[in-house]
Amino acid sequence: MAIDVVTVDGPAGAGKSVCTRALARRLGLEYLNTGAMYRAIALKALRDGVDLHNDDALAALATAVRLESVDGRTYMDGEDVTDAVRASEVSLNVRYPANAPAVREIMVQQQRRIGASKPIVTEGRDQGTVVFPDARCKIYLTASAEERARRRLGELEARGESADYDEILRQIVDRDRSDSQRAVGPLREPADAVRVVSDGMTIDEVVDAMERIVRQRLTIFNA
Ligand code: DC
Questions:
Q1: What predicted TM-score, i.e. pTM, was given to this entire model?
Q2: What is the pLDDT of residues 37-95, one digit of tens each?
Q3: How many angstroms separate the alpha carbon of residue 102 from the centre of ligand 1?
Q4: Which listed residue, 10, 61, 163, 197, has the most CB atoms within 10 A of its CB?
């Protein structure tokens, strides 16, 4: 058996993107960043002046755009938006498309279409639970809220920005709550996932652990 889909879910700030991208490279599979897809919808809405509180308008926009993942980069209607979707204005507004059930339905279809076209390692909040429930290899990558706050503080300080640890921790706890309590596609640990808690681990150690999990799963299914 070859690998078809590896899912990586987990909360914000657990190191999902950097580790999943590295894992995909090691395995020679396409990397799909589904958070970037929700971000692309927010970007398009901001650019086109679409009301972010209007779920129908967001769904129409999500139906009209074509999202692709090529060499780990996100394309919207052929435009490479990988960097543009990281803008802080997009981060502030991505919860609107991410919380709109009709948008999620369309994103789920697009993610399955991409997964059917090539073997992928896909990261998000609902990949192992909703989008690819039959995936044979699921990872749940997490870290304590305190560890994620310490990492975020370090990143901000490295950029010369001042930040307050307690405020960052509060934002992380808030975001976890909103991600987990969403009615459609909430963040939930898949029952059949292998959990990796990245507290105190380097990026390389996390990727090593993830690679071991994938190879073990393959051994089990090939036995
Ligand atoms: O992982 P990220 O920060 O780029 O995700 C951006 C937003 O999209 C975040 O609010 C969580 C949401 N998201 C989601 O609801 N479902 C996914 N599969 C991926 C991300």
A1: 0.93
A2: 999 999 999 999 999 999 999 999 999 999 999 988 999 999 999 999 999 899 889 99
A3: 15
A4: 10
Place of tokens 């993942």: 69
Does residue 139 share a domain with residue 113? no
Angle between helices 16-27 and 203-222 (to 10 degrees): 50
Together in a domain, 179 and 190: yes
- Of the candidates 145, 137, 177, the one whose C-alpha atom is nearest the C-alpha of residue 8 is 137
Residues 74 and 176 both lie in one domain: no
Smallest CA separation from ligand 1 atom 15, residue: 98
Question: How far away, in angstroms, is 163 Cα from ligand 1 center?
Answer: 23
CB 46 near ligand 1, within 6 Å: no
95 Cα nearest atom in ligand 1:
10
Cβ of 34 closer than 6 Å to ligand 1, yes or no, is yes
Which of 89, 118, 147 delimits the end of a domain? 118
Which of 20, 81, 125 is the pocket-test mutation for ligand 1 (most atoms within 8 Å of CB)? 125
DSSP 131: I
- Asked whether residue 25 falls in the same domain as residue 125, the answer is yes
Distance 179 CA to ligand 1 centre (A): 8
Q: Could you tell me if 105 and 187 lie in one domain?
A: no
Are 22 and 41 in the same domain?
no
pLDDT tens, residue by residue, 89-135: 998 899 999 999 999 999 999 999 999 999 999 999 999 999 999 99
Structural domain of residue 95, as residue ranges?
31-118
Query: What is the pLDDT at residue 223?
Result: 62
Average pLDDT, the chain: 94
Ligand 1 pocket, residue 12 CB under 6 Å: yes
Using DSSP's 3-state secondary structure scheme, residue 12 falls into: coil
Picking from 98, 118, 138, the residue at the C-terminal end of a domain is: 118
Q: What CATH code is carried by the domain that includes residue 98?
A: 3.40.50.300
Q: Which residues contact 200 (CB under 8 A, 6 or more apart)?
A: 147
